[in-house]
Amino acid sequence: MASQPPPAPTRPNSHPDAAGPGADAVTFSVTADVTERLDRFLADQLAISRTVAARLVAAGAVRINGVPARASRLLKRRDVVVARLPSHEPARRELTPWHVHLVIVFEDEDLLVIDKPAGMVVHPAPGHWDATLVNALVARGMRLSSGERGRPGIVHRLDRDTSGLMVVAKHDQAHRRLARALGQRRVERRYAALAWGHLDGERTIDAPVARHPRDRKRMAVLQGGRPAQTHATAIARFALCDLHQIRVHLAHVGHPVIGDPVYGGGGSRRVTGAHRSDARELEAAAPRQVLHAARLAFAHPGTREWVEFRSEWPADLRDALAVAARDSGLLAHPSPLDYLGFFK
């Protein structure tokens, strides 16, 4: 079972800017210890292209702590970023409805629990403005919490190639309560993963996680990052790997997730000797990172009752599990995670 810190690095606030007519100002108070370049930060937070963000900076429309800033400026904790947005240039992109089937595990007037497929991006961002989970939620015509700019309803995220359970808030009160519970580690999220090598018994990995200082698409264990703690338990031991969890922390202790292109640590090449061919077979059976958000539990923000949701091992990872276990019977088993004792 793992508990991760909430993803939002800033607190946005929009208000009229006294600097001039026909413009609005958006203010961000940076709460993360490590962030990134100003132009990339603005592109992500405002859901605009990096080119447009750079133009705003070059035009002197962006200040950090009251001082004009360069696009290359790296942000740090407690920085206050104010961006003046001209009224003739939209501050955000329109959310285009995307009509696609969603697997809804649970829904009421406060929230939804969704079983996200691998390959689906959660919210619009540079490079993925449409065909995201948020666009699919918009297509349902439902009310969503305001959330971060361009990310209505999104309380927490899963990577594009991670499948499994997510909770979405329908209104702001539910969003605040769920986000607070996440921050206080009162939301239980258990990820099922096949990771190279073997961990002995249970292990708690307590290490701060932040954006990689040189690669903004990666996270890393860094001094001064957001506190993060993972309780890793080996559910099943196979010849080359264990069934357990979770991504950044497991890579940090030398057990990266199989099929992970970012934190894979060499993949099958890390296995030497007689087992090298078996490792290559296992890697070839993994169409993506073998990581699945299988269990989600929390106090319901409306009723305050404890609720729990489960998602079985996904079909696209069945081959990898069967190869790892050397058990072809797992291909047809209706509940392989339950069979292997994951939910116990």
Set out the fold topology.
Blueprint: E1 2-3, E2 10-16, E3 23-30, E4 34-37, H1 38-46, H2 50-58, E5 62-64, E6 67-68, E7 74-76, E8 80-86, E9 104-107, E10 111-116, H3 133-139, E11 163-169, H4 172-183, E12 188-196, E13 202-206, E14 209-211, E15 219-221, E16 229-233, E17 236-237, E18 241-244, H5 247-252, H6 276-284, E19 291-299, E20 306-310, H7 318-325, H8 336-339
Parallel strand pairs: 11-19
Antiparallel strand pairs: 1-16, 2-3, 3-8, 4-7, 5-6, 5-8, 9-10, 10-11, 12-18, 12-19, 13-16, 14-15, 17-18, 19-20
Helix pairs in contact: 1-2
Description:
The protein has 3 domains: 77 residues, Structural Genomics Hypothetical 15.5 Kd Protein In mrcA-pckA Intergenic Region, Chain A; 88 residues, Pseudouridine synthase; 158 residues, Pseudouridine synthase (2-Layer Sandwich). 19% of the residues lie in helices and 28% in strands. The protein starts with a strand and ends in a 5-residue tail after the last helix. Strand 9 and strand 10 form a beta hairpin. It is built from 8 helices and 20 strands. Strands 9, 10, 11, 12, 17, 18, 19 and 20 form an 8-stranded mixed β-sheet that branches. It has a 5-stranded antiparallel β-sheet with strand order 2-3-8-5-6. Helix 1 packs across helix 2.
